[in-house]
Amino acid sequence: MKRKIGLLLLGLIFIAVGLALGETQEIFQKATIICMECIGLGG
Amino acid sequence: MRLLYRHMAQLGFFILQNPFFKNFFSGEIYQGNLKHVCTPGLNCYACPAAAFSCPIGAAQMFFAGARHSISLYVTGFLLTVGVIFGKFICGFVCPMGFLQDLLYKIKTPKLILRLRYLRYIKYFVLVGFVVLLPMIFSNPTFCAYICPSGTIFGAVPLLAVHDFLHDYIGLQFVIKAVIAIGIVVISVFVLRIFCRVLCPLGAIYSLLNGVAILHMKCDAEKCISCKNCFNACHIKIRPKIEPNHPECFRCGKCTSACKQKALKISL
How high is the pLDDT of residue B114? Predict the structure, then answer.
């Protein structure tokens, strides 16, 4: 159980740091356009 | 009945993750604030109906980006979801898993395969196509060359609406289309071939299935070793011995088959 809680806490800390670094804004910018390479077009 | 509940949950999560059906006709992509958030399943963010962001696509974006860095947000999200739910996500939430389950419902003879060695390919896909190749070539390699979710739910609907995208069809798309068609055809005969062999998200949840808070238990006092659970399992896991096997995506066939009610989902 300690391992599970430890991993869960680690995950939550990572999320918090990621949010603080503004990572969700970068994801948002990528996810709101037609990303050609993401759907296999252009190559 | 339990299986029906699972399929109803899958349908519900599919609609929850892809509520903007009208975008299939306009070819627009949802641009609201929900796209800041990742979804736990493999759900392409280029799908016109998608409300959330794909964690595998988002992770690659960071590895392929100027800093070639890991995304702490995506890593933390997958770790948190994986530690709580394990492969329940694959069985109940993932749209790509739902599609394969529907294809497997088509009445044909089925190939019950254990895929003892092929199942390790997904870990190479995770390390190679999601982490290393994007870092080397600054390109989301899994999305670009493999992901059938992007082809089926993203590329096909967008190509159907936008004529200008036809000019961009090349070898890369042909490779992706062949993979997607192959997965669709094989899924009719083999249960969840993509999840079990190629899915990098499934690989992450497989690694966490053994430590997941929501897990399966076998009550040794109730179990009479009738092997009904093993016979019901289409991926040939022994729930009595390994109830939290990395490949078990919680389809519920074993728990339904257990007349002794020895197999239980618990916290």
Answer: 84
Best residue in B18, B31, B45 for a mutation probing chain A (most A CBs within 10 Å): B45
- What does the pLDDT read at residue B154? 92
Minimum-distance CB partner of A34 among B46, B84, B208: B46
* Chain B residue at shortest CA distance from A15: B73
Question: If DSSP codes are grouped into helix, strand and coil, which group holds residue B253?
Answer: helix
Residues of chain B with pLDDT under 50: none
Contacts of A24 in chain B (CB under 8 A): 36-37, 73
Chain A residues within 8 Å of chain B (Cβ atoms): 3-4, 7-8, 10-19, 21, 23-28, 30-43
Going B49 to B51 to B53 to B56, the CA torsion angle's sign is negative
The residue whose two tokens read 């009719």 is: B188
Which tens digits make up the pLDDT trace of A4-22? 999 999 999 999 999 999 9
Task: Give A43's contacts in chain B (Cβ within 8 Å).
Answer: 144, 170-173
Q: CA separation (Å) from B189 to B38, B103, B149, B178, B253? A: 31, 8, 19, 17, 17
The 10s digit of each residue's pLDDT in B177-210 is 999 999 999 999 999 999 999 999 999 999 999 9
Q: How far apart are CA B46 and CA B52, in angstroms?
A: 10
Under 8 Å between Cβ of B150 and B176: yes
- Express each pLDDT in B28-40 by its tens digit: 999 999 999 999 9
Tell me how far the alpha carbon of residue B207 is from its chain's centroid: 14
In this prediction the pTM is 0.92
DSSP one-letter string for B158-195: HHHH-GGGGGG--HHHHHHHHHHHHHHHHHHHSTTHHH
